[in-house]
Design a protein that fits this description.
30% of the residues lie in helices and 22% in strands. The protein has 660 residues and is an alpha/beta fold. Bound molecules: 5'-O-[(S)-butoxy(hydroxy)phosphoryl]adenosine (WT7). The site of 5'-O-[(S)-butoxy(hydroxy)phosphoryl]adenosine has 24 residues, from helix 11, strand 25 and strand 27.
Length: 660
């Protein structure tokens, strides 16, 4: 019996046009050679990429220092991320980029800003000086809690310029979530905005910051961007307006010469248990990984207008809205608002008006647009597009086909890119000029990335059986740790296969991403989703534990269990089974109160779609909640498998409504 069974069998194969293949940065021959190099000697391969794609102030002494699970890439080298994203595009053979658009920004109300590389450089230098003026030094953490405005990219780059790791907290997270993250990272400065726009209305952001930093807090200063003009309560001495600080700031700020392993940013992501994990990325390896992959996978050319729809608050936005794209001197489009405002064609309108050539989005969005109807994309001229991308969750073959046909006009290759917050950059992906695609498959590991399908015991699983996805050699963009928690880092990612036949000399050095996958006979990878208690909602990871903790923190809840069930649009929907406290009335009022409570504790993205009240939860005799059962019930499936350890089977019968 394979550990995980795969039922999909996809026969369709697509090849990029001759013209695309001919003009691609990486063609078939080159990719074949690079794969060979990457297989034989991944460190040498990445060193070559680092020389080709990144500017260094001084070279490394050693490509990789690997003491599992601690990796150091480009040991002893010095570089700066903002220098690579900005300064190097202003002079010499790149001087033509000075007045090229670095960021094309469109606000939801329709206002636009085009920021050239020279302008972006000036703004970043100024804000770097502002941060210095607030006492931010190399190594100090800065929290960014902002809407999708250019100032977010400016603040990130300013942090990297002076070596202050940023911690971006998605603007949709609640005050509670912000407080946890600010405290965990020990951030002394928060950059935010008065608010932003969503669904045609301004929303306020500053009150959440006020909440999050009230009482005991490490935060000394809050910098506020004026976006909506709706006003904000400013506490004297602590809160400062961005535009006032920038007025007096000097535009001269030499980039700090930072060690390749200097912390670049922390980004919090959900795990199976406990609080979110602060995933730590460092400078040189991350920069090499995202710059190389962005260029090769998106085939970024000088004349491209690239648009990734992700919010910068997620890793996709870090790596492929900002760093990987700007490091290549390309034009990155940023859109502030929701996809369907003022109408269901907003995205297609943006593509037509700006002449977007490369478009990178998530399956959940694609499914939403399928449901809204073909007439909306069809009303727009999308012929500027030449390449499409997908990320965040497995893309179902029918959504892939729709994307290919309706958005790509059958002419654009699709790159289905598998990666994670922890991997920093793309790991498994087609190379559009070299790899034929199959709908639903992320195809092959990027050259220099070593991936495998392993069994529970760590043995290689033979195609086409399913197993656990594993990364068997370190890669430059890999996470370097969980902020402040070495033990959890080792246990979560590096402890699954201590006895793997893959361990070789790297004992304990096989990375466990938490995804199930299988390879087909052609060697293509098919990602089958999470194998742990983490749900993928609209391409975003949410731990069942976090939602459960939020629910039981409500005064009327005694016990709660959370599972995911398949959902047509969001991929997975959250279902909560809740036992109210004695005497509390289950019903629509409590349902609403609990959904609001979860939104307040975590953010609207974590609100359960269904809440089912129950007098008891199904448990094993040892007291463990039987999630497998709850998953079946949530999905409306017959309970299959063993229920002999179940403490009280009548609980299940009642949950299903068998006894009604
Ligand atoms: C999880 C990582 C990477 C940026 C967005 C999410 C799932 C991601 C794919 C894909 C199948 C995918 C995995 C992964 N995932 N991309 N192309 N095909 N699954 O980042 O929040 O760190 O989530 O998203 O389950 O482990 P994240």
């Amino acid at each position: 019996m394979p550990d995980i069974e795969s039922l999909l069998s996809e026969k369709r194969v697509f090849e990029a046009s001759r013209e695309f293949r001919k003009n691609a940065h990486w063609g078939r021959k080159q990719v074949a050679a690079l794969r060979k190099e990457g297989e034989k000697n991944p460190v040498r391969f990445w060193e070559k990429m680092a020389r080709e794609h990144v500017d260094w102030f001084s070279k490394w002494k050693k490509g990789l220092d690997w003491k599992p699970p601690q990796a150091k890439w480009f040991v002893g080298a010095k570089t700066n991320v903002s220098y690579n994203c900005l300064d190097r595009h202003l002079t010499g053979s790149n001087a033509h980029r000075r007045n090229k658009a670095a960021i094309i920004w469109e606000g939801e109300p329709g206002d636009t800003r085009v920021i050239t590389y020279a302008e972006l450089h000036r703004e970043v230098c100024k804000f770097a000086n502002v941060l210095k003026g607030l006492g931010v030094k190399k190594g100090d953490r800065v929290a960014l809690y902002m809407p999708m405005v250019p100032e977010l990219a400016i603040a990130m780059l300013a942090c990297t310029r002076i070596g202050a790791p940023h911690s971006i907290v998605f603007g949709g997270f609640s005050a509670e979530a912000l407080r946890d993250r600010v405290e965990d990272a020990g951030a002394e400065v928060v950059v935010t905005a008065d608010g932003g726009y969503r669904r045609g209305e301004p929303f306020a952001l500053k009150p959440a910051v006020d909440d999050a930093v009230s009482g005991k807090s490490p935060v000394r200063h809050v910098v506020v961007v004026k976006r909506t003009g709706e006003g904000a309560t400013m506490r004297k001495g602590r809160d400062l307006w961005w535009h006032e600080l920038m007025e007096g700031a000097s535009a001269k700020c030499p980039p700090a010469k930072l060690d390749a392993e200097h912390p670049l940013f922390i980004l919090y992501t959900s795990g199976t248990t406990g609080k979110p994990k602060g995933i730590l990325h460092t400078t040189g390896g991350y920069l090499t990984h995202v710059t190389t992959t962005a260029k090769a996978i998106f085939d970024l050319k000088e004349e491209d207008t690239y648009w990734c729809t992700a919010d910068i608050g997620w890793i996709t936005g870090h790596s492929y809205v900002v760093y990987g794209i700007l490091a290549n001197g390309a034009t990155s489009l940023m859109y502030e608002g929701v996809p369907t405002h003022p109408g269901p064609d907003r995205w297609w309108d943006i593509i037509e008006r700006w002449g977007v050539t490369i478009f990178y989005t998530a399956p959940t969005a694609i499914r939403t647009f399928i449901r809204l109807g073909d007439e909306h994309p069809k009303a727009h001229d999308l012929s500027s597009l030449r390449l499409l991308g997908s990320v965040g969750e497995p893309i179902n073959p029918e959504a892939w086909m729709w994307y290919h046909r309706v958005i790509g006009g059958k002419r654009c290759p699709i790159v289905d890119t598998w990666w994670q917050t922890e991997t920093g950059g793309i790991m498994i992906t087609p190379l559009p000029g070299a790899v034929n695609t199959k709908p639903g498959s992320a195809t092959l590991p990027f050259p220099g990335v070593h991936a495998a399908i392993l069994s529970e015991e760590g043995d290689t699983v033979k195609p086409p059986d399913g197993g656990f996805l594993a990364v068997t050699h370190p890669w430059p963009g890999m996470l370097r740790g969980i902020w402040g928690d070495k033990k959890r880092f080792r246990e979560t990612y590096w402890s699954k296969w201590k006895n793997s036949t893959h361990r070789g000399k790297d004992r304990g050095g096989v990375y466990f991403p938490g995804d199930g996958a299988h390879k087909d006979k052609g060697g293509y990878f098919w990602i089958m989703g999470r194998v742990d208690d983490v749900m993928n909602i609209s391409g975003h990871r949410i731990g069942t534990m976090e939602v459960e903790s939020a629910l039981v923190s409500h005064k009327d809840v005694a016990e709660a269990a959370v599972v995911g069930r398949p959902d047509e649009i969001t991929g997975t929907a959250i279902v909560a089974f809740v036992t109210p406290k004695g005497g509390k009335q289950a019903g629509t009022a409590l349902t609403k109160a609990l959904r609001d409570h979860v939104a307040k504790e975590i953010g609207p993205i974590a609100k359960p779609k269904d809440i089912r009240f129950t007098e008891a939860l199904p448990k094993t005799r040892s007291g463990k909640i039987m999630r497998r059962l709850l998953r079946d019930i949530a999905a409306g499936k017959e309970t299959v498998g063993d229920t002999t350890t179940l403490e009280d089977y009548s609980v299940v019968a009642r949950l299903r409504g068998d006894e009604e």
